[in-house]
Write a structure and sequence with these properties.
single chain, four-stranded mixed sheet, alpha/beta
Length: 697
């Protein structure tokens, strides 16, 4: 149904317009019945539908409707699979449409600056390129169903400690290259209907009041045309926020901020045109949903099967010495740890899904394989129980292999607080040591030294248990890779000395050197590298080439290589393409991810991986120019199985069409001037005149 939003706004009273700019209750926007404006509902996501039927809350305290809990973003990122994320988005959009939800609040694009952030389970990656590509795919999927997405939390919500008031102190280049880049990619590629701003300040300014972020960058530079909404309670000064570009305040304010807006218009402190534009944006999204396709239907059981498949695609085989995995189908296996029977498959807080079923590994394995179970420890705490440990060790000693299902309890990570360390509960560490001492064929989740195999499933949704069994026993082949670096110690993390700050401010002094950008530049040892992940088969890379060896920065570069499955079973390989700036023109990371592709290969099969690089693939952000820039010179194109496993390399020569002007002043050094091609001849003549050669003796 076509309608004129401008004509509708012209019919509204000042009070009605002001009222539309805040929630009607905890989850609904305000409607205007006399004008046919519906009160559309929004709901938490991002890995399932958290529609609350009782009194609303934003921290997962009250139950929501029963829905499908898919793998969280920390898991889906390990798939490196944009197609899978788009599929996830489509089913989430269908569930929203069927349940009368107009906007799903997600995905979350914040960068994993520190492994201690309590909400990392909801974030994709330490790498902005990967996060942006995956988020864009999920947004496209959601919105294909006539439901809006709301990527969040814009921007720099990288900790929970004092997240409502703390100021993230970030230099402009780091802000653009690391923390804004995933939002930029998602906005430009997927055109989300809404964007949610964060609670925190950036460089002393409340994000909800930042015209630079909400209007100049988001709308002016990136072309965002939806409405900006606040996180729940993230509004400081309502009128100032509206002027900056914050259209919608959530949740309901009880009418207080509506009155503030109306008063500001009457007193001339707020141009009514600014209010009108905000109302137009909000109504446009309301009617995109309301005038869209009819109610959707979905099958909970079919979506559960998708959740199982996604969990398989996201699992990362970190270690497999001696080919311990997959387990022999006739092997008697001990399942140790309460997580085998009572899986923890999602994090806590506003994204907590009321899963309609949860399939445990113990449930999935019984009757199919020869497995026995010992509780070993309680999934909910940190207290050791000697009797449970002895039982588990005895069982493990009498079996052909032992699988320890270890992980963090709910109390260790959640929205609202950060972690104090990276360790597992002490009771789990002790149990692992004891089991490994009596059973060499032990599988354990987070630690590496004492066991031959580690399979990382992250928080893989309600299908995690069956997926784990299928992977352990070889029904499926692991194909995920790490979207974050596993350091040896939390002290090795580049943000360690500046996380989480003093409560008032947090300094991002590591700059752009986040995650692998830091570890690789420093050549520091890590437990497992960014992009690492093993398979039950093997892959060979060959023939890396670019379609041009010399290129201008306004021309695309196509890069190809062949990947062959050299093993005995089918598998999927994630090929990563990194770009290395060899020009020396600016301080840069050793390499940066600029492309990835996931190939499915039968034994002996070869396929071509193809990547297309553009100017942005080679650029850095120059704060002085206020734009992205390149340098002319050599760039390395590196194809790898991880950031530390580079298999092929070629170089190209790039010519910058808009070089950064070289400024000469009284303090310019001779060697710098001589290095400039346009100045070299002049400088040589000048030096010869100033320092003539000595006459012959």
């Amino acid at each position: 149904m076509k309608r004129s939003i401008e004509r509708l706004v012209a019919q509204m009273t000042l009070e009605e317009k002001a009222g539309v700019c805040s929630g009607g209750d905890f989850w609904h926007l305000k409607g205007v019945e006399r004008l046919g404006i519906p009160a559309v509902m929004v709901s938490d996501g991002p890995h399932g539908l958290r529609k609350q039927e009782q009194e609303g809350d934003h921290l997962g305290v009250n139950d929501s409707i029963r829905a499908v809990c898919f793998p969280t973003a920390c898991a889906t990122a390990a798939s490196f699979d944009t197609g899978l994320l788009e599929t996830l988005g489509r089913v989430l959009g269908a569930e929203c449409r069927a349940q009368g939800v107009g906007v799903l609040l997600g995905p979350a694009l914040n960068i994993k600056r520190s492994p201690l952030c309590g909400r990392n389970f909801e974030y994709f990656s330490e790498d902005p390129y990967l996060a942006g590509q995956l988020a864009a795919a999920q947004i496209k999927g959601i919105q294909s169903q006539g439901v809006g997405a709301s990527p969040k939390h814009f921007a720099a919500n990288n900790q929970e400690y004092h997240r409502l008031t703390c100021s993230a102190q970030i230099d402009p280049r780091t802000l653009r290259e690391i923390y804004l880049a995933p939002f930029e990619a998602a906005v430009k590629a997927a055109r989300p209907w809404t964007v949610m701003c964060s609670y925190n300040k950036i460089n002393g300014e409340q994000v909800s009041e930042s015209k630079a972020l909400l209007t100049d960058i988001l709308r002016g530079e990136w072309g965002f045309d939806g409405y900006v909404m606040s996180d729940w309670g993230a509004v400081n000064d309502r009128v100032k926020g509206l002027c900056a570009g914050l259209d919608l305040e959530m949740p309901a304010s009880g009418g207080s901020t509506d009155r503030q807006i109306a008063a500001a218009v009457r007193e001339g402190r707020l141009p009514e045109a600014v209010l009108d534009r905000a109302v137009e944006r909000i109504l446009d999204v309301i009617f995109r949903y309301a005038d869209g396709q009819g109610a959707a239907e979905f099958d909970l059981q079919a979506h559960h099967e998708l959740a199982v498949r996604m969990a398989r695609e996201c699992a990362v085989l970190l270690k497999n010495e001696g080919g311990v995995l997959p387990l022999g189908q006739r092997t008697r296996v001990a399942f140790v740890g309460e997580f085998a029977q009572k899986p923890r498959f999602q994090g806590g807080g506003s994204s907590h899904i009321n899963a309609f079923r949860a399939e445990s590994a113990w449930e999935a394995a019984r009757g199919r394989y020869e497995v026995q179970y010992a509780k070993g420890f309680s999934a909910g705490g940190d207290e050791a129980d000697e009797a449970l440990m002895r039982e588990a060790v005895e069982l493990a000693a009498g079996c052909g292999a032992a699988v320890v299902f270890a992980g963090l309890p709910d109390s260790f990570e959640c929205e609202g607080y950060d972690r104090s360390h990276m360790r597992l509960p002490g009771c789990q560490n002790e149990l692992i040591r004891r089991v490994a001492a009596v059973q060499p064929n032990t599988v354990e989740l987070p630690w590496a030294d004492e066991v031959p195999a580690i399979l990382e499933l992250y928080l893989a949704g309600q299908g995690a248990g069956r997926a784990a069994v299928e992977l352990l026993f070889g029904e499926a082949n692991p194909c995920g890779k790490l979207a974050e670096t596993f350091p040896l110690r939390v002290q090795d993390n580049p943000s360690y000395l500046n996380f989480p700050g003093n409560g008032d401010t947090v300094e991002y002094r590591e700059g752009m050197f986040v995650g692998y950008r830091y570890y690789d530049k420093k050549e520091a040892p890590v437990r497992f590298a960014f992009g690492h992940g093993l398979s039950y088969t093997s892959f060979a890379y060959s023939g890396l080439r670019a379609d041009k060896t010399a290129v201008r920065d306004d021309e695309p570069v196509t890069v190809r290589l062949e990947v062959t499955n050299t093993g005995a079973r089918a598998g999927k390989e994630i090929v990563q393409l990194y770009v290395a700036d060899c020009t020396g023109a600016e301080v840069r990371p050793e390499k940066e991810l600029k492309g990835f592709v996931k190939l499915e290969l039968e034994p002996g099969e070869t396929k071509t991986a193809e990547f297309v690089l553009d100017r942005r693939s080679f650029a850095w952000y120059d704060p002085q120019r206020g734009s992205w820039t390149c340098a002319s010179g050599r760039y390395g194109l590196l194809a790898g199985a991880s950031s530390r496993d580079i298999r092929q390399r070629v170089e190209i020569e790039l010519t910058c069409t808009d070089p950064k002007p070289y400024v000469v002043d009284a303090n310019s050094r001779y060697d710098d001037l001589l290095a400039q091609p346009a100045l070299r001849e002049f400088m040589l003549r000048l030096l010869e005149k100033e320092y003539p050669p000595a006459p012959p003796a």
